[in-house]
Amino acid sequence: MPTVNLTAETFESTVDSDKLVLVDWWAAWCGPCRMFAPVFEAASEQHPDVVFGKVDTEAEQALAAQAGISSIPTLMIFREGILVFAQPGALPATALEDLITQAKALDMDEVRAEVAKASS
């Protein structure tokens, strides 16, 4: 599945879906972002069951601020609407593949229990 561009209007509905969603926060002027883009795009082709979204931090400054983005590229992974990973920095293909595998393997009942415990 090709990557989708996420905006303030589409971000929440996309990450709140039942699917595994990877979000790449980027900007056109960012060298590491340009280096990570083909890695992210290739992974999107290998995982049609995963949503790969991109947020242009220049076009979506309010959304980036709301998400607390202070360094780009930043990769976020959501599963069933829960943020399960967030880290700045470009990743090599093998590391991205490993993260996707780990995210798919998560026990979401356990994750929801941890989230509930942390918010109480």
Describe this structure in words.
This protein is α/β, with parallel strands linked by helices and 120 residues long. It has a single domain (4-118), classed as Glutaredoxin (3-Layer(aba) Sandwich). Helix content is 42%, strand content 23%. The protein has helices spanning 11-15, 31-46, 61-66, 93-105, 108-118, and strands at residues 4-5, 20-26, 51-56, 74-79, 82-88. It has a five-stranded mixed beta sheet, with helices on one face. β2 (20-26), α2 and β3 form a beta-alpha-beta unit.
Summary tags:
120 residues; alpha/beta; Glutaredoxin; five-stranded mixed sheet; 5 strands; 42% helix
Low-confidence stretches: none
Radius of gyration: 14 Å
> What fraction of residues sit in β-strands?
15-25%
Percent range for helical residues?
40-55%
Sheet with most strands: 5 strands, mixed
CATH fold-level name: Glutaredoxin
Overall, the morphology is globular
CATH architecture: 3-Layer(aba) Sandwich
Number of domains: 1
CATH superfamily: Glutaredoxin
The SSE order reads EHEHEHEEHH
Annotation field: number of helices: 5
Q: Could you give the distance between the termini?
A: 38 Å
Structural class: alpha/beta
CATH class division: Alpha Beta
- Average pLDDT value? 94
The number of strands is: 5
